[in-house]
Amino acid sequence: MRKKKKHSSEKYSGSRQKTKYKKKDSLKQDLQKDVKKDSKDCKKMSKEATRRITKKIRKRFLRNQ
Asked: Could you give the CA distance from residue 54 to residue 60 in angstroms, rounded to a whole number?
């Protein structure tokens, strides 16, 4: 009895699907890392901005006295 030959797409479909999902997962992880970095940067920027503003306000207040 002869075995049916598998088409190349049937042979490798499982591994191809795995790599496709791995790519999607790695992309999601990269995006999540980028979002975390951006949020940290925004927090730092906002802290720096508030510091600058408070310094300016203090200078103005001291000048007016």
From this structure: 10
Query: CA–CA separation, 10 vs 31, rounded Å?
Result: 32
Tokens of 62: 């001291």
- Summarised one tens digit per residue, pLDDT across range 1-30 is 566 666 555 555 556 556 666 677 777 888
Give me the residue spans of the domains in the chain: 16-65
The angle subtended at Cα 15 by Cα 11 and Cα 20, nearest 5°, is 130
Residues 3, 41: Cα–Cα separation, whole Å: 60
